[in-house]
Specification:
Radius of gyration: 31 Å
Helix content: over 70%
Oligomer: single chain
Mean pLDDT: 82
Structural class: mainly alpha
Largest sheet: 2 strands, antiparallel
Low-confidence stretches: none
Shape: elongated
Length: 107
């Protein structure tokens, strides 16, 4: 359901940007570091939206990759700790009956 809402919001956002871009077709001057040129405003708007989407998508991919690496690292750490925990548990269970026997004899 979450993906459906995200898709709907994406479509609505794309429609708003498209309508806004089609309304603004006047030529504008775009200044670069090395020069300038005139482009239709529709291309400037669509190019800006595309660049923003690429930047946000890249940041999201990097974040997902780093979280997956962290999960893998934590799973390895947990697997390394698991034998230690099971040895400690077996030692505790062996000691508990002896302690309970000693307590019952002392009473």
């Amino acid at each position: 359901m979450k993906n459906q809402w995200a898709l709907l919001l994406g479509i609505v956002f794309a429609l708003i940007v498209a309508i806004f871009a089609v309304i603004n077709v006047d030529p504008v001057t775009v200044n670069y570091l090395f020069g300038e040129s005139e482009w239709p405003l529709i291309l400037v708007i669509l190019g800006s939206v595309l660049m923003g989407g690429i930047i946000i998508g890249s940041v999201g991919i990097v974040r997902i990759y780093s979280l997956q690496r962290e999960i893998k690292h934590l799973k390895k750490e947990k697997a390394a700790e698991q034998p230690k925990v099971s040895k400690n548990d077996s030692l505790k269970t062996e000691k508990k009956p002896k302690e309970s026997i000693q307590k019952s004899t002392q009473s």
